[in-house]
Design goal:
The structure holds 2 protein chains of 2 kinds. By secondary structure, chain A is α/β, with parallel strands linked by helices. Chain A has 11 helices and 14 strands. By secondary structure, chain B is an all-alpha fold. Classes of the chains: A alpha/beta, B mainly alpha.
Chain lengths: ~400, ~220
């Protein structure tokens, strides 16, 4: 009876020692390395089949180490890690463009034992010259399509007169200038808080040029307080040029186009002060606006000015609609210059824009129909539109 | 040449910027970064011009004794005080109230910023609440069918978005408010976004093709 009692701890000790000994895991399999497509370079995509020992009961694989070397027989150095369960990683550290690299994956078990995969490579990382991702291709197709339409209409505009629907906000520009002239009060033109690279600011420059030419002809004072230094220098040049074009360079007062401050609320305080002191007959708010839009427009209302606004900022549009007499909504701001100039090429661009909208509206309807039909009725005719709508 | 050179630069930059969006290679990215740095340099130079414009305007106001010229004194005084405070050496001590030199916590420069400029800015921003109230009062007057519709929609959204609305009326009011924001409102917003996008594309094309030249300024 005593023999089995002595054997039991020995067997237990044997099993314990056997179980806790370091048992290297099975390495990952089918390691493949390719240069990452559509990147700036210096990246390699690695894929593998995970170690079957990820799920073993004793000392499972807990992670992988990515190793790289410039030659298959040279020393491999760690350049990254991947957690257990991962089957791919993009190696991006310490890889240089134009140089060959070899890769290995080291599978680590919980007991610190490890096993290395076979070597994959060589791979030479290099930058791509064109992004072939579907999303980018889609953008290219849209752009070519819409740009083609705009260019076609610009070309067509030179041959025959095109009709543009009346836009109340732009028609009101002349009324506003006339009102200021009759009342003998100045016009205030604000180009917003955007910099000169913003499309809305560029659209504001176009309108400023037309307004300045009219104010030069009517000898009405034009005040342009600027928020951004580069915008200020451009505005000065535009107004000066407009006065020159109107044949009244002597009427241009450079003190009326000035830089205020490059800070949102101090700018609002300064412009509101100008409104209340100078009582302008007409205020133009064209460009990019943020929280200050309503503060400016409400002060202008208090000062009794006619107000014409236009911005590409969606939230501020609603503030302008509430507080101003006329608001250029959406693309109307960008059409203002063409509408005022009536130049055939400019008008053609508006036509192109409108055709673009028609295409978008048509595709949206087809997309909505395809999403509704494809799920239930299996109508695959709309598959393309479904992909567009669901961004598949 | 005064107009042709800027036009050529603009066309080259415009075409490059459009293409670089589709090119992941590091070379266009490097050029893009450098172009952005160039814009910063131009901005810094333009800022000097802006400051000259601002000061000359206010000096002229003082010289001519124009109405409100007293404010120009304040502006010029604070302008130079703020600029000078940034150059104060660390060893200068203006006392416990004004602070020390340098630009660390407790310095004169940061005290001016934290205890003068920031509260003034916050005050201006706070005024927005009153402006919104007065604008809303005018907008929500039910003068027509559409204005009444706007008023009703606004009431539903406002009540649905505050905690007391669903608490008193039930969850349907917040569901309705969410539906208004997610469906009709989002549809209208997207239509405007598409229009703005096409407008920007059209304007960019006109500039690259040299049809739109207002930004060039200058006389004929």
């Amino acid at each position: 009876m005593r023999k089995p009692l002595i054997l039991f701890p020995l067997v237990f000790l044997f099993l314990f020692v056997f179980a806790s000994a370091q048992t290297p895991p099975t390495p990952v399999d089918s390691l493949q390395a390719v240069d990452t497509p559509d990147d700036a370079g210096g990246q390699v995509d690695l894929t593998w089949k995970p170690s079957p020992d990820e799920g073993r009961a004793v000392s499972p694989v807990i992670g992988y180490q990515i190793l790289a070397a410039p030659a298959a027989d040279s020393t491999f150095v760690p350049i990254g890690t991947a957690s257990a369960g991962a089957t791919s990683v993009t190696a991006k550290d310490r890889l240089e463009n134009g140089r060959p690299y070899y890769f290995k994956i080291r599978a680590y078990a919980m007991d610190s034992s490890y096993a290395e995969s076979e070597v994959a490579g060589p791979v030479v990382p290099k930058g791509s010259w064109w992004n072939t991702k579907p999303a980018y291709l889609r953008i290219v197709i849209w752009m070519v399509f819409v740009v083609g339409f705009i260019l076609y209409n610009i070309r067509k505009a030179g041959k025959k007169e095109l009709y543009i629907r009346p836009i109340a906000g732009i028609d009101a520009i002349d009324e506003g200038i006339g009102r200021a002239t009759e009342m003998g009060r100045p016009i205030l033109f604000i180009c917003g808080l955007g910099d000169a690279a913003q499309a809305a600011t560029l659209a504001a420059f176009s309108v400023l040029g037309r307004v300045a030419q009219k104010t030069a002809q009517y000898q009405t004072r034009l005040i342009v307080p600027c928020y951004e230094p580069i915008v200020f220098t451009i505005c000065q040049d535009i107004v000066k040029g407009a006065y020159l074009n109107a044949g009244r360079p002597e009427a241009y007062n450079e003190k009326d186009v000035f830089f205020v401050v490059y800070d949102q609320f101090p700018y609002v305080a300064a412009v509101n002060g100008i409104m209340l002191r100078e009582k302008p007959a007409t205020n133009f708010y064209l460009g990019q606006f943020y929280a200050e839009s309503l503060m400016l427009a409400e002060t202008g209302f208090e000062a009794g000015s006619i107000q014409i606004a236009g911005t590409d900022q969606l939230i501020q549009m609603s503030f302008f609609i509430v507080a101003c007499d006329f608001t250029l909504i959406g693309e109307e701001l960008f059409a203002a210059s063409a509408y005022l100039s009536k130049e055939p090429e400019q008008v053609g661009s508006i036509k192109g824009q409108d055709w673009g909208k028609v295409i978008f509206a048509g595709l949206s309807i087809l997309g909505v129909v395809s999403v509704l039909l494809d799920e239930n009725l299996r109508v695959h005719f709309f598959g393309f539109f479904r992909k567009l709508m669901l961004n598949e | 040449m005064r107009k042709e050179i800027p036009l050529v630069i603009m066309v080259a930059c415009g075409v490059f910027m459009a293409i670089q969006f589709f090119v992941p290679h590091e070379l266009p990215a490097l050029i893009y970064q450098n172009l952005n740095k160039t814009v910063q340099v131009v901005g810094a130079v333009a800022l000097v011009l802006g400051i000259v414009s601002l000061l000359s305007l206010h000096f002229a106001k003082i010289n001519r004794r124009q109405p409100g010229y007293g404010y120009s004194y304040i502006l010029i005084a604070f302008f130079f005080m703020m600029a000078a405070s940034g150059f104060l050496p660390a060893k200068v001590n203006l006392g416990s109230f004004l602070g020390t030199g340098d630009r660390v916590e407790g310095s004169f420069y940061l005290n001016l910023y934290n205890y003068v400029l920031t509260p003034v800015q916050a005050t201006m921003f706070a005024l927005l609440a009153f402006f919104i109230a007065s604008a809303a009062f005018r907008a929500f007057r039910a003068r027509s069918v559409i204005a009444t519709l706007l008023l009703l929609t606004a009431i539903i959204v406002m009540i649905g978005r505050v905690p007391i609305g669903p608490f008193v009326l039930g969850d349907w009011i917040s569901d309705l408010a969410d539906w208004i924001m997610a469906v009709p409102n989002a549809a209208a917003k997207r239509a405007v976004i598409v229009g703005v996008g096409l407008g920007i594309l059209s304007l960019s094309l006109k500039m690259v093709l040299g049809i739109e030249r207002a930004w060039l300024g200058g006389g004929r």
